[in-house]
Amino acid sequence: MGYRSEVLLAIEFPSKQAMHEFVAIAKAGASVEVIEAINDYGMYAPEHTENVAIIAHYDHVKWYNSFSDVQAHDHILELASEMRYPTLFLRIGEDADDVENRWVWGDSEVVEVTLLYDMDIVRHIDKPADIKPIELPDRA
Predict the structure, then answer these.
(1) Which residues pair with 89 in a beta bridge?
(2) Which residues are CB-neighbours of 132 under 8 A, at least 6 positions away?
């Protein structure tokens, strides 16, 4: 089985063009693992801003630093940081206290962070919404 995690990785860009340029640079001469990793990202582009983010989300995965696919994602985030883009890495492990939250703020002259603020770790208990109070018989 192995230890499992939920992981989110995100990079914010000032425009779709900047995002496309980054993806092209990340893929140029990259390993198969880096290309596969970058292909796992989806684009988040709300209409209220020109900023866009690429996001990869994995649930119930083995996330070990020694794995080549994890190293590929680390490489992508490092490249984005070198290019001064803001990045976010969130991971929740199976243990309640196993949480990682790593921000790299980037350079506000390159892109002002707006979209990554929408992403965070929240632990809560889900329960049915239609739970009714117990009706106890009247006691005499």
Answers:
(1) 9, 102
(2) none
pLDDT class of 140 with cuts at 50, 70, 90: low
pLDDT of 6-16, one tens digit each?
999 999 999 99
How would DSSP label each residue in the chain? Answer: ----EEEEEEEEESSHHHHHHHHHHHHTT--HHHHHHHHT-EEE--TT-S-EEEEEEEEEE---TTSHHHHHHHHHHHHHHHTT--EEEEEEESSTT-EEEEEE---TTT----SGGG----------TT-----PPPP-
Report the relative pairing of strands 87-93 and 42-44 from DSSP bridges: unpaired
For the chain, the domains span 5-118
Query: Rounded mean pLDDT of 5-29?
Result: 95
Q: What is the mean pLDDT of residues 80-84?
A: 96
Mean of all residue pLDDT scores within the chain: 90
Whole-angstrom distance, CA of residue 88 vs CA of residue 122:
15
Q: Which CATH number fits domain 5-118: 3.30.70, 1.10.3470, 2.60.120, 3.40.50?
A: 3.30.70
